Amino acid sequence: MTFERERQQMIADIESGVAFTRTMTGRNRLDPRVMEAMQRVPREDFVPENLRASAFRDGALPVGHGQTISQPYIVALMTDLLELRDTSIVLEIGTGTGYQAAILSQLARQVYSIERIPELARSAQQRLSEMSCDNVEIQCSDGYLGWPEKAPFDGIVVTAAAPEVPPALLEQLKPGGRIVIPIGLPYSHQELMLVTRDPQGNTDTRKILDVAFVPMIEGA
Ligand code: SAH
Fold first, then answer.
1. Long-range residue pairs from 166-173, CB within 8 A, at least 24 positions apart, any chain
2. Hey, whose CA ends up nearest to atom 10 of ligand 1?
3. Each residue's pLDDT tens digit, 74-121
4. Which pTM does this prediction carry?
5. Helix (H), strand (E) at residue 62
6. How far is the CA of 62 from the centre of ligand 1 (A)?
7. Helix intervals (H) in the chain
8. What is the Å distance from ligand 1's center to 211 Cα?
9. Whose CA is nearest to atom 11 of ligand 1?
10. Which of the residues 4, 30, 54, 177 has an alpha carbon 20 to 30 A from that of 38?
């Protein structure tokens, strides 16, 4: 099965989501490169076998270990907010299934992704290798500390909710770089935030949207 119809429906759902939230996000449409990546990466291969038919529904899905694969619209929006170039080095915190990392790999030169649950880190790395996503490297560790050996980053995306922007991530961001992160307490009000650092090193934080993410847990 190719899921071609489902994939087209997912793209249409993302476009409606973007239109519906445009006054909050300031975005009328997403970068066509982001939409092409959403079209190209086989989302059905990132969800558990029994949920493949629901892979393209515009919602999050459980993927085991109490974790979820994020809603397609949110994956697309977060990717778009990073404004990646093909020279970008990007860090993701919360690899999960590896789906967001696969999308990023289409738009950046190199993707580093950190996951704290060893089984998820292992299976995501295997899945991405099988798909020949060769510019993604996954490490099993605590994302609160970032990945200092690979820093600085042009973009950092956090796919679990933290109470504040982890200071190590701010330190590992290049001037001109962007962090996209849900901020808030577990299972309560959370806001997707965009942190930008100008070439002089001053940071600015802007609220984008209310969201619901699994918590970012401190300690590996
Ligand atoms: N981006 C994923 C979905 C993320 S779900 C995808 O595309 O499938 C959030 C993930 O963050 C979970 O897998 C969870 O284990 C991980 N996580 C939570 N706290 C973390 C931390 N401190 N460091 C690294 N990963 C963390």
1. 168/144, 169/91, 169/93, 170/195, 170/197, 170/203, 171/146, 172/91, 172/146, 172/147, 172/148, 173/197
2. 94
3. 999 999 999 999 999 999 999 999 999 999 999 999 999 999 999 999
4. 0.97
5. strand 61-64
6. 12
7. 4-20, 22-25, 32-40, 72-82, 99-107, 118-130, 167-171
8. 15
9. 94
10. 177
